[in-house]
């Protein structure tokens, strides 16, 4: 896991592969987190995978 300094990825953890991100997501869910989303970063300088936190108590996105 690498902490990025990129603006769009600030404070987020970059995972090199999707399985890596999925594993992190599963760990967060074990800790009680819900509605997590694994997505690929658009930024070229990053090009990794992130675990996004979707807002709670929302029926629409
Ligand atoms: Zn990123």
Polypeptide structure, described:
- By secondary structure, the chain is α+β, with helices and mostly antiparallel strands.
- It has one domain (2-53).
- The protein has one helix at 18-30; strands at residues 2-3, 13-14, 36-40, 49-53.
- A two-stranded antiparallel sheet has the order 1-2. The chain has a two-stranded antiparallel sheet with strand order 3-4.
- A hairpin with an 8-residue loop joins strand 3 (36-40) and strand 4.
- The protein is globular and about 30 Å long.
- The N and C termini lie far apart (28 Å).
- The mean pLDDT is 81.
- Bound molecules: zinc ion.
- Zinc ion binds at residues 4, 6, 9, 14, 41, 43, 46, 48, 50.
